[in-house]
Amino acid sequence: MLRNVLLLFIIFSMGNAEVELAVKCPPGWTNFGVRCYKYFSQSVNWITAEKLSNCANLASVHSKLENDFLLSLVPSSTLAWVGAHDGEQEGQWLWSDGIAYDYTNWCSNEPNNYNGAENCLEISWTSNHCWNDASCLGSKKYVCVTDM
Ligand SMILES: [Ca+2]
Ligand SMILES: [Ca+2]
Q1: Is 66 helix (H, G, I), strand (E, B) or coil?
Q2: Which ligand ends up closest to the CA of 79?
Q3: Any idea which ligand is nearest the CA of 117?
Q4: Ligand 2 mean position to 133 CA, how many Å?
Q5: What are phi and psi of 81, to 5 degrees?
Q6: pLDDT, position 3
Q7: Residues in the chain with pLDDT < 50?
Q8: Tell me, what's the pLDDT at 13?
Q9: What pLDDT does residue 4 have?
């Protein structure tokens, strides 16, 4: 009996822990998995977005589910920066938050490094809402990620 009560207590405690995790995103940020995300509607170039103090990192994307989640934060027909760039070496894409580059959703014929000068990743391009490499100097809205 005592063992069962203990077990129930442990399960109940774990349940509470999950609830607590889910509400730990800062105000205005949305939880997905174990991280928090926020769409910012001012338009800035990629490096400005990445360095803004209210943006821990531009978001990284690691699954279709996460990609769909990010798109749900961005108004339709709105381009938004996320954190991948190939500025160090052409074609070698990295996420600014250091997490492995293990998923892509490029539009067909992208990334094309147009004019030899497209090193930053924008999402929600074309009606397919896929990825495009764009000039990092362009001003766009952006999505950030932070740990809980
Ligand atoms: Ca490039
Ligand atoms: Ca492109």
Answers
A1: helix
A2: 2
A3: 1
A4: 4
A5: -70, 140
A6: 57
A7: 6-11, 21-22
A8: 54
A9: 55
Q: What is the Cα–Cα distance from 93 to 125, expressed in whole angstroms?
A: 18
CA of 109 to the centre of ligand 1 (A): 13
DSSP string, 110-148: ----GGG---EEEEEETTTTEEEEE-TTS-EEEEEEEE-
Distances (CA, A) of 135 to 36, 48, 132: 27, 13, 10
Q: Which of 79, 148, 70 is nearest to 120 (CA)?
A: 79
Distance CA 111, CA 132 (A): 6
* Closest listed ligand to the CA of 132: 2
* Ion ligand 2: residue ranges with CB closer than 5 A: 110, 112, 114, 118, 132-133
Check if the beta carbon of residue 120 is closer than 8 Å to that of residue 135. yes
Q: Which residues contact 62 (CB under 8 A, 6 or more apart)?
A: 99, 100, 102, 103
